[in-house]
Structure formats: C-alpha cells, structure tokens
Design goal:
heterodimer, A: about 190 residues, alpha+beta, five-stranded antiparallel sheet, 4 helices, 5 strands, about 35% helix, disordered C terminus, B: about 400 residues, mainly beta, Porin, 2 domains, 16-stranded antiparallel β-barrel, three-stranded mixed sheet, 5 helices, about 50% strand, globular
Chain lengths: ~190, ~400
C-alpha cells in the first residue's frame, strides 16, 4: 500500500508539471495548416496514392444539389499523375459536440468514395468516428447511394453527434463533387 | 503531497492567465469583464449551449391499497461549453433536480495535445458503466435510469480530480484515467455508507468536498467491431474520513480509530452496447469489493456490504424500422432485466439482508418523435429475495429532450 501511494505521488507530480508546461502553450488556427497536409499526404500514401499531385479544383456550385448548405470550408482537389487523372479529393470541416473536426474524402474517377479519413479530432467524446472500421462503411458509395445514419451507416453508441455530423458532411461533399462533371465535361 | 498540490494550483493559475489574455480589448488594450465581453460579441462564437430534460410521471399500484402518482420535472440540465483555443475548452453542466435542487454536474477544462492525449481537470464524471457518462434521456430506454446505475454505480457520480484521456483510432480504443476525490465515508461521527445503496450517500459532488486520500479511476472503450462498443472500467481507492483531520501522526490508537472509519473500494465494471439495423442491445456487469466493512459497521452502526454485484441486459427493436419513414421517427419496444445485490457478502457479525438482493424487470416503449425528443412509457416490476416482501409494480411515462 505504501508503495502504491508513492506511485500515486509520482503521477500527481508528473501531471502537474506537464499541465504547467502546457498552460503557456498557444495555438494559432489556420485553414488547412501544414500539420493537416502532412496527415493528408500520409493518408494518401497509405492508400497507394503517394505520387498523386493535388491540383486545386472547384465543382460547379451554381447548381447546388437540393438541401445542400455550404459552410465555406469545403475544398476540392484533383489528383493527377502526369496527365493521368487518378481521382478527386475533398477536405472539409464539420462540427462535433463543442468543437469541429477536419475530414478527407477521396473519390475515384467515377466519383465513387475510395477513402474517408478523419484528419483532426479535437474532443474526447465522439472520437470513435476516427475508427477505420466505421469509416469503411462509406467505401464505394456515390451521390446516388443513400447515406443515412442507422439506415445505411451504422451509428456508434456514445458518438451520436459526431456520427451524424461526419455522415452529413461526407454526403454533402459527395453531392458537391458531382458538380465537377457538369463544369468539366472533358473529365472522365 | 503538498508539493504536488502547489504544482496543480500553479498550473490552474497558468490556465486562467492564458484565458485572461484573450479577454483584452484589441483596440484599447483594456481588460474586459464578462458583461463587456458579451456586449462586444466576443464570446458568442466560442460558446456552445445545450440542454437535456426529463419530466416524469410514476404511478405505483398495489392490490389492496391506493397509491398516489408522482409527477416531477426530474432533471433539467443546462449545458455550456466555451472554446478558448483550438485545443482548450471548458465544459459545464448545471442541473436543476426536482426544480429546486441545484447542482453543478460537470465543470472541467480539457486541453488537447493530440488524438492520443488530452489533459483534463475539474469536476468530472467518473467513467463507470454506460449511464454515468451517457445519461441524456434520448440515449437510453425507460423513463427511469437502470437501478443498477444508482444502487451500485452511484449515478450521477462526479467528483473533483484531474487526469488524461485520449483516442487511439488505429487500435479502436478510447481511454480515460483520473485521480479523483473519494467518497465521504465518515463525517463528524456519522457513517455515510450503508447497505441499501452502498456508496451513494457518500458522493461529495465537488461541494466543499474534503480528501484524506486520492482515488484512481480508469476506463477503456473498444469500438473496433461495427455497431459494438465494449467498455471496461475500474475504480480503486479508499473512502474519506474527517477523522484524519488534525490526527496526531504519532498516536497509534487514534490512527487505528481513524483507519476503522475508512473502507477500501475496488469496483470493476464491464459494459457493452450493440446496434444493428433496428435491433439494439446493451448490458452491464459490475462488481465491487469493499474491505474493512466489518470495522466500519462496528464503528458506525451501519450495514454496509462487503461485496456489491449486479448486472442487466436490455434488448430493443425499432418497430418503425421496416417502414423506412422519411420523418426518421423511431418507436423502440424494449425490455430490461436487472439483478443487483448490495449485500452479496457481509463481513463480521452482520447478516446479509435479502431485501437488498433485487430483481427488476422494465418493459415498454421509447417513441422518438424527432431527433432529440422522446416520449416514454413503461411498466416496471421490482422484486427482492426477502420472503416477506411483496412485489412492487409501477407504470411510468415521461418526456425527454436533448439538444
């Protein structure tokens, strides 16, 4: 028991010291900072897209799909290797309970979802949406497929808000990227 | 221990200082107070507001006697969050229980380093079982919370403390580990812990609480299987006693006296939630070993059990599921079987009380009229192992909201 308390004391001191150091730490928010791009690159590399060049891209937003509301955080990129188009990439931000998170959706040239990834998540509750197993549910879906929580996408107990938020965001991005085909008929 | 407290205080001061830096008018460089901050519109964009509430009607009934119903605004909880920076936020919940009892249910600062690590300090929920952390009325079935999460896990169980938490997505794990202030076990000559609901009356809830030794609490949740979430929680430590205040360190007799006013607590809880399509199930298993209860009962005249054990299993199905309604309304038919015993084992001369070996069955409907609003109706039967005890029956109906 004595040993147990000695150990506890160590934990208290370590925690205290760490908190003291961190209290002076500040964070400057920038839209898509380098740290986020690092995660994007890492995610692409993991999915065999290491050589893809990201080219900023804009879907046709004059014809917004029904029910879609823009937040201004939606960004789109075309993935190229030389002259070959490998697919498309969408990066956006969505709300969690009392913060927001960033996510990535990658599409193939037929605009099917090929990769979904939560890039940053800032809260403790709801972090379960980072689970690869959960994100895999979006695989191969297109705008035509219904993407609804509990109907098509399984929820996660205790992460209801983030599950709904991520699902809605992915659904929206998939709807928006559909516009690419309208603006650029030359794309496959 | 003194040194560590100094450190904690100084880092809390550091956090406050950082918060204050933000509250300076950028043009005049004058510090702002709360009112001027609201007027300037600086704070609103970082504030999150929310609430949950449950209004209940319980109607017990018996064969031979009349019973009166009970109508109650059981809980109304106002939630507020404030985001100081990308990674630092404050969360608080202010609860009105039965209209007139006011509690602060949570009040903590969370500072995130990365997904795998956040530091957290303040008044926090002890992670044990499902309900203690997730108790918004739209997230569980039944008008009343499961009784296991009251008699054994003393929900809503919150204390002051500090610790770490994080999510490891690759391993599909979330962890939490805290040091908390413990239960008030012995206060000015009165033993607070007892047979019926074990630790419940000892919760200090962050209200002028005192500490004679810190307690350790941790939980790991696994969410790697689609639709399934499994949690394993532990709580280890000792109840607190005011007899340690001004205790002469060299007086072994007084020391022994003080020691007998304290019980050791080791609680382990396993929980699981599963959902697939319209089907849902959840279950929980809790075991708590309490030591020194013979001495504690001898000193206080209480009947605290040495082992608390209980479990429940609940299954439900959304009857509207096959219709695939556009409105997303859900009508969940559910049934829950609970068994919990706060006198599983008694130490010393105490006899186990069979009335504390209880079995509850709850069955009914949760009608989710919209996301965040639910109407509940259920029937409950309460039984216990005491031969002379009659079963209790009750019908409940209630409204629940969460946003």
């Amino acid at each position: 028991m004595q040993y147990y308390f000695k150990y506890l004391k160590k934990v208290w001191v370590t925690l205290g010291l760490s908190l003291l150091l961190l209290s002076s730490w500040t964070f400057a928010p920038v839209i898509w900072p380098d740290s986020l791009w690092k995660k994007v690159d890492k995610g692409l590399e993991k999915n065999g897209m290491k050589e893809a060049v990201k080219e900023p891209w804009m879907p046709n937003l004059s014809k917004l799909p029904e029910g879609v509301v823009l937040t201004g955080n939606e960004t789109f990129y075309r993935l190229k290797k030389g002259e070959n188009i490998l697919g498309y990439l969408a990066i956006s931000s969505a709300p969690s309970r009392h913060n927001h998170f960033e996510l990535l959706v990658r599409y193939d040239t037929a605009l099917r979802i090929k990769q979904t990834q939560i890039l940053t998540y800032r809260e403790d509750y709801g972090g379960e949406i980072m689970s690869e197993r959960w994100l895999k549910q979006f695989m191969d879906k297109t705008f035509k497929d219904p993407i609804e929580v509990s109907q098509d996408i399984q929820g996660i107990s205790g992460a209801t808000i983030s599950v709904r938020s991520a699902t809605q965001e992915i659904h929206k991005l998939t709807a928006l990227i559909q516009g690419i085909q309208h603006t650029h008929p030359n794309t496959p | 221990m003194k040194a560590s407290w100094l450190l904690i205080i100084s880092c809390c001061w550091g956090l406050t200082l950082q918060a204050q830096v933000n509250n300076v008018d950028t043009l005049t460089n004058q510090p702002l107070n709360s009112a001027s901050n609201i007027i300037a519109g600086n704070s609103s964009k970082n504030i999150t507001l929310g609430a949950y509430a449950e209004m209940d009607y319980n109607q017990p009934f018996a064969k031979d006697v009349h019973r009166t119903g009970n109508l109650d605004v059981h809980r109304l909880v106002l939630f507020m969050g404030y985001q100081f920076s990308q990674n630092t936020h404050f969360v608080t919940e202010i609860e009105f229980e039965h209209i007139k009892e006011v509690y602060v249910e949570q009040a903590f600062i969370n500072h995130r380093i990365n997904n795998a690590l956040s530091f957290r300090g303040g008044l926090m929920l002890v992670p044990m079982g499902i309900i203690n952390e997730y108790h918004e009325p739209t997230t569980y079935n039944g008008v009343e919370r499961p009784n296991l999460d009251g008699k054994i896990i003393p929900s809503t169980w919150r204390e002051l403390g500090l610790g770490v938490t994080g999510t490891l997505p690759a391993a599909s794990l979330r962890y939490q580990a805290y040091l908390f202030n413990g239960f008030n076990g012995y206060d000015q000559g009165v033993g607070m812990l007892r047979g019926n609901d074990a630790l419940r009356a000892g919760r200090q809830k962050g209200a002028e609480s005192y500490m004679s030794s810190p307690n350790f609490s941790a939980k790991i949740d696994h969410f790697g299987v689609l639709g399934l979430k499994i949690g394993l929680a532990g709580y280890f430590g000792k109840s607190q006693s005011t007899l340690f205040e001004q205790l002469d360190k060299n007086n072994s007799l007084l020391r022994a006296h003080a020691d007998s006013s304290v019980v050791g607590i080791s609680m382990v809880g396993l929980d699981a939630r599963y959902q697939k399509g319209g089907f849902q199930a959840r279950g929980q298993l809790v075991n708590a070993q309490l030591n020194n209860t013979d001495q504690y009962n001898g000193l206080t005249g209480r009947d605290l059990g040495a082992q608390l054990f209980g479990y429940y299993l609940e299954v439900g199905y959304d009857l509207l599921r096959p219709f695939e309604l556009k409105s997303k309304q859900r009508l969940v038919l559910f049934s829950r079987y609970e068994k919990y015993n706060t006198h599983k084992v008694m130490l010393g001369e105490g006899m186990t009380n069979a009335a504390f070996d209880r079995t509850d069955i709850t069955t009914g409907f949760s009608y989710h009229i919209a996301y965040g609003a639910v109407i509940k109706l259920d029937y409950q039967r309460f039984q216990n192992a005491d031969q002379n005890n009659m079963d209790q029956h009750q019908i409940n109906t209630g409204l629940g909201i969460w946003f």
